[in-house]
Write a structure and sequence with these properties.
The chain is α/β, with parallel strands linked by helices. Helix content is 51%, strand content 16%. It has one domain: Rossmann fold, CATH 3.40.50.2300.
Length: 91
């Protein structure tokens, strides 16, 4: 029987050890994303609900991946600033 490709990939390459941050202002959605990621073996370092908190936590935790809802109110208002600040964290 063939196994799930995603779980095979995760175990072979140890992607589960990569740190992930969730940026979502709807608590139920954030909890569901967190549950799904943890169920797949990924480590979620933080869940935040604003762009400002996302940047602060990302500077502190240095996540490997940020999953971000781009319709967060303060993100939309600062759309010219936040993407640049976040992208600099990965350079």
């Amino acid at each position: 029987m063939e196994q799930n490709t995603l779980s095979n990939s995760t175990s072979k390459h140890n992607y589960g050890k990569a740190k992930k941050q969730i940026v979502e202002d709807e608590a139920i959605i954030a909890m569901e994303i967190d549950s799904q990621l943890q169920g797949l073996g990924y480590e979620v370092t933080s869940i935040v609900d604003t762009g400002k908190k996302a940047i602060e936590k990302a500077e502190e935790e240095k996540p490997d991946l940020i999953l971000m809802d781009i319709r967060i109110k303060d993100f939309i208002l600062q759309m010219d600033i936040y993407p640049q600040k976040i992208s600099k964290l990965f350079l």
